[in-house]
Write a structure and sequence with these properties.
Length: 156
């Protein structure tokens, strides 16, 4: 495998070669940035290890952007244990529903609905249609409301 595509130093990787998969996971998560963790996991094909989820959740518990990134790029799907922490950020709740769940996330809709912009984005890009429950919220911004009406040809 060509190391240059992973932007990782050959010396660094030679250290990893002598570790067990669990040790590689622990070392990567404890010592490297989220971007480098992804590269290390990809290089060693570690992204499917359930053990990593526990350590990633512990490290990024209070960091919705990194939890979202882990779910999307490392885990590659829903991460139920991280969802309560993701729901502390409207932006990452919306992004998680759009890019990870790839559909509606009913448990998070009240939170999303409370935010004008994300209510509009959720209707347009997740529901891909009118979101009747959120229309009173979206109406509070004439600019977004006009986009909403134009997008769904509704609500004269």
């Amino acid at each position: 495998m060509n190391l240059s595509q992973y932007r990782l130093d050959e010396k660094l990787l030679s250290v990893f070669d002598y570790l067990t998969d669990e040790q590689k996971i622990e070392t990567a998560i404890q010592e490297y940035s989220i971007d480098d963790i992804l590269l290390i996991f990809t290089y060693y094909e570690l992204e499917q290890y359930p053990y990593a989820k526990k350590l990633l959740l512990k490290k990024y518990r209070n960091n919705p952007p990194d939890l979202y990134y882990c779910a999307k790029e490392i885990i590659g799907g829903r991460w139920l244990e991280a969802e309560p922490m993701l729901m502390t950020s409207t932006e990452y709740t919306y992004l998680y529903s759009r890019h990870v769940i790839k559909g509606r996330w009913p448990e998070a809709e009240l939170m999303i609905m409370a935010n004008l912009a994300y209510a509009y984005y959720y209707a347009r890009y997740v529901i891909k249609g009118r979101w009747l429950e959120a229309e009173p919220t979206i109406m509070n911004d004439s600019y977004l409301w006009q986009f909403y009406k134009d997008c769904f040809k509704c609500c004269n």
